[in-house]
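Structure first, sequence second, as always.
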């Protein structure tokens, strides 16, 4: 049995695992406390406490004089738990699952966030303490429909720095950036509609669009932005309702939209019903702000979204969207219908953290560390014949082509067996044309084991192509 948690938690986990695998069916008598103690090498008092806690959860029931019995209906058969998770198909959610389910010993150069020690810990803790000392309604009440006025005012000022003119009344706070996109999809799409995405793009866009039962069409993404000719052909052939892209720093390529491509793109969509959604989650990582479609468009057909999970905290969930006033009205109604009030506590903590006197200096340091790591990791990868498609001016991602003959999914599986989570290219590609690419997070590549494990996997993957 895995030795994770307290002894009592270990016993409880052992029983839960037996229930999940159907070794313990409903009505089955659990081993007596003495038997279980002997089987697991625990004390009788430890097993008694574990059984009592399971009974308090309703998972087992105590029968005086007869012992403890499994309670409830048959658990759904979890096929993934019956075999190694290494065999899961490398789909758009593969990287998310592997990164989120891994333990602290696992290295995660394929994940999409900063290491905990890179985050603004002091500011978050100060915000938590201040919130705890504040009025009770800040800890217990729902947020207003639009969300915290103070945070919306701050966001309007921050967007103005990227050229987007917006009033606080055009900003609606959400539980996350993902929820913001989900609300837009609910608001504007119906099953069967077509949505354009960058190819490659953030893999969760694929999963979210699939959940909305719409057709996703990929447009090749270049170092200057989407391929305008492909975009025009897709616009004419599919009459898409949405185009979802990144603002500023592109995920996964690290590229930035050029003013020329932005201008040509907006000219193309004039007269169409297309709405553009810009995900601006990486704004604080930029050294200089790249063009925003929302700035050129004035939020007429562009919706700006973002969140703070990459720069403040992924545990304090808060996102936002900015749109034209008549859309905001409908989006607020939709948010109320699906989630009622957003988290006021999270909004207040985010506001306090962003306005902390140390946040700006902290992000200056983060940008410096990322730039240093970007060059260092790019050099290390080139020694393994892993070539970055470009070296971005800012951000955390390197989009890299593997040596000839290497399949990114196979390399990722091999590395996972040694405790290293990578991000295979086809997880990001609608056309499945990135089978020899990996995305690397340079902030998560400090451990030398990343490169040692990758080297072994690449040697194995290209063994049959050497000398050709």
């Amino acid at each position: 049995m895995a030795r994770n948690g307290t002894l009592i938690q270990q016993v409880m986990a052992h029983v839960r695992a037996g229930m999940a695998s159907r070794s313990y069916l409903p009505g089955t008598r659990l081993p007596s406390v003495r038997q279980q103690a002997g089987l697991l090498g625990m004390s009788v008092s430890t097993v008694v406490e574990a059984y009592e806690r399971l009974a308090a959860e309703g998972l087992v029931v105590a029968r005086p004089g007869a012992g403890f019995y499994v309670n409830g209906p048959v658990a759904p058969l979890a096929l993934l738990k019956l075999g190694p998770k290494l065999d899961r198909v490398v789909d758009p959610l593969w990287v998310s699952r592997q990164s989120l389910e891994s333990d602290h010993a696992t290295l995660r150069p394929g994940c999409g966030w900063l290491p905990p020690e890179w985050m603004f810990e002091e500011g978050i803790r100060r915000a938590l303490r201040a919130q705890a000392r504040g009025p009770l309604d800040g800890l217990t009440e729902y947020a207003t429909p639009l969300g915290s006025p103070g945070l919306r005012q701050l966001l309007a000022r921050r967007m103005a720095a990227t050229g987007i003119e917006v009033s606080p009344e055009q900003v609606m706070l959400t539980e996350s950036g993902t929820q913001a996109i989900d609300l837009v999809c609910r608001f504007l799409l119906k099953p069967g509609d077509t949505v354009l995405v960058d190819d490659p793009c953030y893999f969760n866009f694929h999963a979210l669009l699939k959940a909305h039962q719409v057709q996703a069409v990929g447009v090749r993404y270049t170092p200057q932005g989407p391929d305008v000719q492909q975009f025009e052909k897709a616009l004419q052939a599919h009459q898409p309702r949405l185009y979802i892209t990144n603002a500023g720093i592109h995920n996964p390529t690290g590229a930035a939209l050029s003013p020329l491509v932005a201008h040509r793109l907006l000219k193309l969509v004039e007269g169409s019903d297309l709405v553009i959604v810009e995900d601006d989650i990486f704004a604080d990582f930029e050294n200089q702000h790249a063009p925003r479609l929302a700035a050129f468009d004035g939020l007429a057909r562009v919706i700006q979204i973002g969140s703070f999970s990459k720069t403040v905290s992924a545990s304090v969930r808060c996102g936002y969207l900015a749109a034209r006033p008549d859309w905001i009205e409908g989006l607020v109604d939709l948010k109320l219908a699906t989630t009622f009030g957003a988290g006021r506590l999270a909004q207040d903590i985010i506001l306090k953290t962003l306005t902390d006197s140390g946040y700006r200096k902290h992000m200056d340091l983060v940008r410096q560390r990322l730039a240093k790591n970007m060059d260092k990791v790019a050099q290390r990868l080139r020694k393994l014949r892993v070539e970055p498609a470009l070296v971005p001016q800012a951000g955390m991602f390197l989009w890299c082509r593997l040596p000839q003959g290497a399949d990114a999914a196979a390399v990722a599986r091999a590395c996972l067996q040694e405790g290293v989570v990578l991000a295979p290219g086809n997880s990001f590609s609608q056309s499945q044309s990135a089978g020899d690419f990996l995305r690397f997070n340079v902030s998560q590549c400090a451990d030398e084991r990343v490169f040692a494990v990758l080297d072994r996997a690449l040697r194995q993957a290209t063994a049959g192509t050497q000398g050709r």
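Margin note: The first helix runs from residue 7 to 20.
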